[in-house]
Amino acid sequence: MKLAQKYNRVNLITSLIILVLSGAIYYLAIHYILTNKLDNDLKIEEEEIIASVLKYKKLPLPSDFKDQKVTYEELKNKEPAERSFSNTSYYNPEEKEIEPGRSLLTNVRIGKQDYKVTITKSSLEAEDLVRLIFLITLGVIAILLISLTIVNRFILSSLWRPFYETLKQLKAFNLADKNEFSVQYTQIDEFQELNQSVISMSDRVRQDYKELKSFTDNASHEMMTPLAVINAKLDTLIQTEALSDQQGELIEDVYLAVNKLSRLNQSLLLLAKIENNLIKDEEDIALDILIAQKIRQFKELFTAGDIRIEQHLDNQHLLMSKYLADILLNNLINNAIRHNVQGGGIKISLLDGRLSIANTGSGKALDGSRAFERFYKDSSSEGTGLGLAITSQICNLYRYKLTYNYETGWHIFTIQF
Amino acid sequence: MKILLIEDEAALRDGIIAYFTEEGNICETADDYASALTKINIYNYDCIVLDLTLPDGDGMEILRELKRLHKNDGVLIISARHSLDDKLSGLNLGADDYLVKPFHLSELKARVSAIVRRKNFDGNNLIVFREISIDTLAMKTVVGNDNVNLTKKEYDLLVYFIANQNKVITKSALAEHLWGDEIDLSDHFDFIYTHIKNLRKKLVEAGCNDYIKSMYGVGYKFSS
């Protein structure tokens, strides 16, 4: 749930409860006041009747009263009823309809005779007034809630805009990218502080990353020269005459190790270069032609492993570095051969902007989440463990989507361009 | 041929010199930028093997100097940097080839030989080894008077062997030369064997002596 939504919800519920409560109190209070006023009016009538009885010793005529109805009842041997107010109905002779009313029941004594007097007055006006006030209150509540919602929505969203802007950039943050954070100016202290922290954090992280990378770069470069020396010395060593077969085998192993080390080094350098975006010679590449060329180039390896190759290549042009395109295909095809089984197969298809290279191999799927990590490799693999990391890094560079799937014996690598 | 090796790493320099000097080549060395500049100003070389990273200067400057002097020396760059930019700017400045460290001495020798051949004969030349003669322009191989029909790989092998005659060449050097370093052939040296077997067979059938000797474990040697 978004903060604004949560805040809005709490805010609105609280306002609603308070407004409904105050509306109810308001209603009750006005109702009480108006009833009181009616009762007072009724009392005044009562006093008038009593005054008139005292003066004339007889009851005034019911028709003498306007806007109210007065009835008398002779009480014979009965206890006089208690004086009380009550809500009744009132027949309005002018409107000819029954309206809500308020009546006062009282007793009057003329001589020895007790009379029960009922004075009824229409409370319609009062009820109308209460209803009107109640409606106005409801209207005010509605307007208040609506305006609160609108104000909250607009003000909050504009207040939080710098926050979301920063969040968006944080999400898109990529160590390898050169572009800096461009924070929006905001008057809110908290957001200003957030922006400054984010900027200083990203600078620090970038700096550390840069140092780490230049370390890798330098270390790899520095290692190349001693490797070249080892290689040259070995080349010289094997020229000596009296080299036994056993020595020859030992030397071959050293050659293989040196070769592997220099490959590893070159792969690390390449990774650093791709991450630094140092390879920029983009050109139009006809991928289908390049793949066909690679298949020819690897032909001997296919034959040696008795690997059937199936291909379906549609036209596909890409704007990328030829150097990286070569590496990308070499890595994928090399892998498909290296991890294949004798008499296995490789399927290469280039269809609808999607290249997939599938190979038979071990009957066990790779760990898809880790397959593209550096130095992730099968214990039996002879490779450097960097091939797929480089492949995935190249795909990242050009925003291609590289995925791995395992389907009934086939390991499938797919690139969506 | 007369070669100048500009390289600051003494161990590497010695290895290269040892590999090159044997067959009567003249091989001079320079271990820094200043002495390299002096030498290219005074002498002419068939090929200059140039390390780009020198302690007191940039190897690229030597290329510029050569260009300024209108020298026609062949230049082969050896660099620890596998950088496309370096390679392109080196070639643009007049270098003939670019080799990345670490490399096999046999590869260096083959490349230097190719450069020298192109420089000396203006691209129209024959490689002759006893009864074998190769026209590198037409890529035609002749033994005695007979044309030998070689595949591209067999032809490359033969040229490589002749450039490194009397040297033991490792299988990995041969593999890298034939397939490039894009394909990792470390576990597939059998291919080399197949190609060598075919080459040997074709040469012997054409009446050529068998010059290719297998050195157990290490590689092959082409010698008379």
UniProtKB/TrEMBL annotation, chain A:
Domain Histidine kinase: 218-417
UniProt key word Protein transport: no
Record's keyword annotation contains 4Fe-4S: no
Keywords: Kinase, Membrane, Phosphoprotein, Transferase, Transmembrane, Transmembrane helix
Cellular component terms per the entry's GO annotation: plasma membrane
Cross-referenced InterPro entries: HATPase_C_sf (IPR036890), HATPase_dom (IPR003594), His_kinase_dom (IPR005467), HisK_dim/P_dom (IPR003661), HisK_dim/P_sf (IPR036097), TCS_sensor_his_kinase (IPR050428)
Catalysed reactions, as listed in the record: ATP + protein L-histidine = ADP + protein N-phospho-L-histidine
GO MF term set: phosphorelay sensor kinase activity
EC number in record: 2.7.13.3
Leader peptide range in chain numbering: none
Membrane-spanning residues: 12-34, 129-151
Protein name per its UniProtKB record: histidine kinase
Source organism per UniProt: Pedobacter cryoconitis
UniProtKB/TrEMBL annotation, chain B:
Gene Ontology biological-process entries: regulation of DNA-templated transcription
DNA-binding region: 124-224
Response regulatory domain residues: 2-116
4-aspartylphosphate modifications at: 51
GO molecular function, one term: phosphorelay response regulator activity
Residue stretches in coiled coil: none
Keywords (A to Z) from UniProt: DNA-binding, Phosphoprotein, Transcription, Transcription regulation, Two-component regulatory system
A GO CC annotation given for this chain: protein-DNA complex
SUPFAM superfamilies for the chain: C-terminal effector domain of the bipartite response regulators, CheY-like
Residue ranges occupied by any OmpR/PhoB-type domain in the UniProt entry: 124-224
Keyword Transferase: no
Name by which UniProt lists this protein: DNA-binding response OmpR family regulator
Organism expressing this protein natively: Pedobacter cryoconitis
